Predict the structure.
Amino acid sequence: MDSRFRGVFPPVVTALDADGNLDETSFERSINRMIDAGVNGLFVLGSSGEVAFSTDERRRQIIEAAVRIIDHRVPLLVGCIDTETKRVIEHARVAQALGADAIVATAPFYALGGQAEIERHFRLIHEAVDLPLFAYDIPVCVHTKLQADMLIRLGLDGVLTGVKDSSNDDVSFRFLVDSNKRAGHPLVLLTGQEVVVDGAYMAGADGSVPGLANVEASAYVRMWQAYENGDWSTVRKEQDFLADLMRIVLVPQGVQGYAAGVGAFKTAMALLGIFDTNQMPEPVLPLRGENVERIASVLKQAGLELKRNVEEVSASAHIHTL
């Protein structure tokens, strides 16, 4: 197991200005805030990082900015996510050239295959790019669940360094952790959950990749440190706080999916003064008005200090006319 990749690795939310361009000032503010909180690494161009909304040029901008800002202080994982193998390899070679410390890839999607094709997909990526490779298990987006026996085999063969599990399947993750232990722990196993990280740690996970850490990283760091020290009462205490805070994604009304999830993260970050706007990538609209108020209420109940008011955040992003 590669111990460089243990701990808290937030999937960095991409900051946009009101015109939809990369806002490097806000992006830097957010990254530095998480590093100052003690995170063990960062993951750009994941689902929270708008990889599916980003052109090749935007992906390059995000990687270049992250490499510059992080400046080797913590490891940088870069999502190289696309429909099929050759496209993933193209992204991975760019990430490697720009300074990524590891790459993250899902199973192929759109032209769906079986487990044999998925296994070959990861082997071909590994052959093409000399960087640690993480498999990203997110069946809600790619419509395929990665099988534990395949993942363990790829770990033992040196193809995969680890797995970022966003399957929302706690039972299968527990079985994967157990199988990984029996195999000698070839894989670093990171949970992509925000709300049941304590359970993943109890099973034996090697860390977490929580999107909510963009809003509040220090509690995830404290939970990780408590887990390392066997302090389970603190693990539970921090998870209880974070579970309440995660309700920011549940309170928006009249929106679904990305607009409610990452939209809530960006809105909370704007209210806390981390981002200058809560601008979303087209065609997703930014949250406004009562939805911003609902998120502000959750933040205040959690004891977080707001730096901007609801009206300022609601007016910060543009909704472009068709």
User: Anything to note?
Assistant: The domain at 7-231 is CATH 3.20.20.70 (TIM Barrel). The longest helix spans residues 56-70. The chain has two domains: 7-231, 250-321. The two ends are 51 Å apart (CA to CA).
